[in-house]
Specification:
- With about 300 residues, the chain is an alpha/beta fold.
- About 50% of the residues lie in helices and about 10% in strands.
- It has a five-stranded parallel beta sheet with strand order 2-1-3-4-5, sandwiched between helices.
- It starts with a helix and ends with a helix.
- About 45% of the residues are buried.
């Protein structure tokens, strides 16, 4: 296993940064920035697989399924972060998108040694959440070989869930388990083996696309506005007003009144103002349109 790890691109020394410890600070940050540019290019080469995964996730969520992210260390933290952002940004019930990390919540802020090496722990997580047909598990690991994630993916697949792998190497053990593999390859890290850097950036970019793309497909966005944002604090309430005014051209006062009539929900408020209808009619129109504002306002 150690020999396999040594052969991974993410573990190799980068020939372009061999003397980074002797560089001036400006040259050092320029070298890091130069390497970071490779991330977008690496992700671009995986867009067909990302699109396939977006459509899968959207279809499963639309049918009442759930989305899970599973990872260890940086990969796990990125999954938990992406899951945590879905409820406030897109109005998703928190139980529909969940991030699972080796070592549990403690591992979000400190290392839990050995947690990632336990495949049975991943299996138990899957069983505890009752994953099955209609659910999607996205396994995340730069190396594509983390035992905790492999255990969870295998168990989820056995229980009938769809499985996606987000890795930064080719021909990985996780790819062998996955229905869809997304494998951006940014090459060796600036600091050998520090996969929180380019590999982590690639993973973050991919997860952004998976969740955002799925939410767009589910009608959580109108134009390019976050039409299902939850106004759970003052900042988000102000954002909701701006979204409604931008979507409808209404005054701030009219937008606020419509939002208050709709329990601070942007989507029915937008439809109310665009159609000049009641809250009840707006909700009915959205129901018929599957939650898509653009369809709800069509004659």
């Amino acid at each position: 296993m150690r020999e396999d790890l040594d052969r991974l691109d993410t573990e190799q020394a980068n020939p372009l940064t061999v003397h980074i410890d002797e560089m001036s600070t400006m040259d050092m940050v320029r070298a890091i920035n130069r390497e970071d540019r490779r991330c977008a290019e690496a992700v671009e080469r995986t867009l067909p697989e990302i699109a396939q995964a977006v459509d899968l996730i959207a279809a499963r969520l639309q049918a009442g399924g759930r989305l899970y992210y599973m990872g260890a260390g940086t990969s796990g933290r990125l999954g938990v972060l992406d899951a945590a952002e879905c409820p406030p940004t897109f109005g998703m019930p928190p139980e529909l998108v969940t991030g699972l990390i080796a070592g549990g919540r403690t591992a979000m802020t400190e290392a839990v040694e050995g947690a990632e090496d336990d495949p049975a722990s991943g299996e138990r997580e899957v069983d505890a959440h009752g994953m099955g047909p209609g659910d999607v598990l996205v396994g995340i690991a730069a190396s594509g070989r983390t035992p905790y994630v492999l255990g969870g993916m295998a168990r989820a697949k056995a229980r009938g869930a769809d499985v996606v792998a987000v890795v930064c190497v080719q021909n990985s053990a996780m790819a062998a388990l996955a229905d869809i593999t997304i494998a951006p390859l940014p090459g060796p890290e600036v600091i050998a083996g520090s996969s929180r850097m380019k590999a982590g950036t690639c993973q973050k970019m991919v997860l952004n696309m998976l969740s955002t793309g799925a939410m767009i497909r589910l009608g959580k966005v109108y134009g390019n506005l976050m039409a299902d944002v939850k106004a759970t604090n003052e900042k988000l309430a102000a954002r909701a007003v701006r979204i409604v005014t931008a979507a409808t051209g209404a005054s701030e006062q009219a937008a606020r009144r419509a939002l208050e009539a709709c329990d601070m929900q942007c989507k029915p408020a937008i439809v109310m103002l665009l159609l000049g209808c009641t809250r009840e009619d707006a909700l009915e129109a959205l129901e018929r349109a599957g939650g898509h504002i653009a369809q709800a306002i069509k004659p």
